[in-house]
């Protein structure tokens, strides 16, 4: 590999991570409190709570799948680049065929 190839750095800062975690926590607490104080029967409240839980777990699963797909694409691109660099390094345009 060439010397200009670096390991991918984390695109998120600590502040962005903290903001995302805080935002998620506030949204989850607000939804939970909203469902808890909703003036409806307990079975409706339970249905909404299960729906919210399902939404949260599905969002985590989707985020993981997207991240995994992105990582797979990045690894494949790096492998292809390394192969191309190796072929270019081994190629000698002045060599005569058969020698």
TrEMBL record:
The keyword Transit peptide does not apply. The chain crosses the membrane at residues 12-37, 43-63. GO terms for biological process: DNA damage response. Keywords: Membrane, Transmembrane, Transmembrane helix. Residues 16-68 form the YiaAB two helix domain. GO terms for cellular component: plasma membrane. Pfam families: YiaAB. PANTHER family: INNER MEMBRANE PROTEIN YIAA, INNER MEMBRANE PROTEIN YIAA-RELATED. This is YiaAB two helix domain-containing protein.
């Amino acid at each position: 590999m060439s010397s200009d190839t670096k390991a991918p750095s984390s695109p998120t800062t600590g502040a962005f991570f903290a903001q995302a975690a805080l935002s998620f926590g506030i949204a989850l607490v607000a939804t939970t409190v909203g469902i808890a104080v909703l003036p409806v029967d307990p079975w409706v409240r339970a249905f909404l709570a299960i729906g919210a839980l399902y939404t949260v777990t599905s969002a985590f699963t989707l985020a993981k799948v997207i991240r995994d797909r992105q990582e797979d694409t990045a690894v494949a691109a790096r492998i292809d680049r390394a192969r191309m660099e190796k072929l270019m390094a081994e190629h000698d345009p002045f060599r005569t065929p058969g020698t």
